[in-house]
Specification:
The chain has about 120 residues and is of the alpha+beta class. Helix content is about 60%, strand content about 10%. It is elongated and about 65 Å long.
Length: about 120
């Protein structure tokens, strides 16, 4: 049996207060999964493109110098994470940011790294 770690001075009231407001394990897991999506620079680039304009896969691919297949794969990840949405106009599908939260997340991240 492993020995229990020794804590010099536990502030029980603080521990209890924080424990009461701590999100549940499932919420924390979902949040970690969301942040993993932001861990790829190609996906970040796509999100920045969509800040400026709704675009189709071929437009994004040309702008970023990538294949349509690679862009489609990354868009699928972004859709699954509910960061982008799409609409169909005839045979063309246009992608856009899901909501202003996406911009806020990236703006806050950029602000943090620029400090």
């Amino acid at each position: 049996m492993e020995p229990q770690p020794a804590y010099n001075h536990v502030h029980q009231e603080t521990v209890q207060r924080v424990n009461e407001i701590m999100p549940g394990e499932e919420e924390l897991f979902d949040l970690a999964e969301l942040f993993k999506v932001f861990g790829d620079s190609t996906r970040i680039r796509i999100l920045y493109v969509l800040f400026e304009s709704d675009m189709c896969v071929c437009g994004i691919a040309e702008l970023l110098g990538m294949t349509q297949s690679a862009i489609s794969h990354q868009l699928a990840v972004l859709k699954k994470a509910k960061l982008v949405r799409y609409r169909r106009e005839g045979k063309t599908i246009f992608y856009s940011l899901s909501d202003d939260h996406v911009r806020t997340i990236l703006d806050q991240g950029m602000e943090h790294i620029e400090e």
